[in-house]
Amino acid sequence: AKCQNTRSAIDLFCADDYTQKTLTKSKSALTIIHRENSFCANDSMLYSVILPTYNERENLPIIIYLLDKTFTELNIDYQVVVVEDNSPDGTLQVAESLQKSYKNRIKILKRAGKLGLGSAYQDGLKEADGQRIVIMDADLSHHPKYIPIMIKSMDENKVEIVSGTRYMPGKGGVYGWDLKRKITSRGANFLAHFFLNPRVSDLTGSFRLYDRAALEQILPSVKCTGYAFQMEIVVLARKAGFQIAEVPIVFVDRMYGESKLGPREIILYLKGLLHLFLNT
Question: What is the average pLDDT score of the chain?
Answer without folding.
Answer: 81
